[in-house]
Amino acid sequence: MDTKRTPQPKPVIKRYWYLPVISLIVLAIYLSKQFLGDASYFVARDKLQMANVKQGDFKIEVRGSGVLKPKSLQWSAAQSRGRVQQLLAKPGDSVVQGQKIAVLENVELLSELEKIQWELKAIKAENNAAAVAQQAQQLDLENAVMEAEFNYKSSKLKLDAEQSLLDQGKGSLSALDFKRTQLAVTQQYARWQAQIKRADKMQQNYQASELARQARLEQVENNLRKAQQQVSGLTITAGISGIVQKLPIELGQQLNNGENAALVIDPGSLFAEINVQEIQVKDVVMGQPVTIDTRFNKLSGEVQRISPLSENGLVAVEVGIISELPKEARSDLNIDGYIEVTNIKNTLYVKRPAFAPKNRTVDLFKTTNDGAFAQKYEVKLGTSTAKYIQILSGLNPGDQIIISDTSAWASHSSVKIQ
Questions:
Q1: Percent helix, strand and coil across the chain, each rounded to 5?
Q2: How many CB atoms lie within 10 A of CB 39?
Q3: Is pTM, for the whole model, over 0.90?
Q4: What is the CB neighbour count within 10 angstroms for residue 109?
Q5: Strand partners, 319
Q6: Beta-carbon-side half-sphere exposure of residue 300 (alpha carbons within 13 Å)
Q7: What is residue 371's DSSP assignment?
Q8: Which PANTHER family match (predicted)?
Q9: Is the CB of residue 399 less than 8 Å from the CB of residue 359?
Q10: What is the pLDDT of residues 104-131, one digit of tens each?
Q11: pLDDT band at 5 (very low <50, low <70, confident <90, very high)
């Protein structure tokens, strides 16, 4: 006879085996939610660049690179042909106007100067001798005129006396003697007048000779001055006070007349010339403030001139320096210039993100307070500079955004930063 078996109930663990599995799944989902949030993409923190939104005055600047240049400069050139014999200054030396920088040598010029000096001495001696001789001749002529006048007047007195005797009917004067006396008076008068004319001609001749001698003397003196100037031109001097910027000559070098030998600049007259892109120069006007960065100091300046020409897409802007010049300031020093074209008061701005054009609405990733996640927000941008961009809406002061390239995960609305 068969015995009836009573079925044993299944253990609880077998009957509800799925409950732990479900619990683990729920726990995993919970933990995952706590860890991942709504993020659907992971990014490495060390590959991200962050920036905080700031509030304040937002300066719109146009940037340009350039150099410092002197307004006051002068090349000193060789005024005569010669070989460099002495160099009395070096680049970087301070000089005053008229100070010697170099001395040239030219034996031919020195010989020519000496020759003209001797020629001038000889001409002066000759002119002096000729003047003495003419003065002696003039004295002889003056004596001859006086003697002829005396003879005439003596003859005239005799004629007058004989005429008086004849008029009174006294004496035994014959008519023949009277006629002879009249003839003698006429002859003496003619001789007197001839001597006067001869003296006048001699005076004219003396004056003409004197003019010729003076002209010859002036010609030689002019040649002497030219020779002295040429010899003086062998000394190269500073045209202005300042610093020797360039000295492109060396000992023994042959220089031609007019060849540049030394450039002297006034370091106190430095200004900045910066090159601005032609698409940005439209915002630049006269008088705008400028910050000049020398890499060691920042100087203040203002726009003084804008070139009307564009070269290779760049426009030269001349900036006057207002600040005191620092020690490193020198001609041709590379600098950066930042021209302030606009200053927006009390606005939001942030360091410019990658691929964030001005006056556009873009998607930017803002980090959470704990920095573990970044979520996408629609942000309206305003005007911009090379480094910063204005925030019109979508962010608040203190918000932190990702400014590095986010194009690889731009389709995700939230990312996990790890």
A1: 35, 35, 30
A2: 20
A3: no
A4: 20
A5: 272, 303
A6: 5
A7: S
A8: EFFLUX SYSTEM COMPONENT YKNX-RELATED
A9: no
A10: 999 999 889 899 899 889 888 888 888 8
A11: low
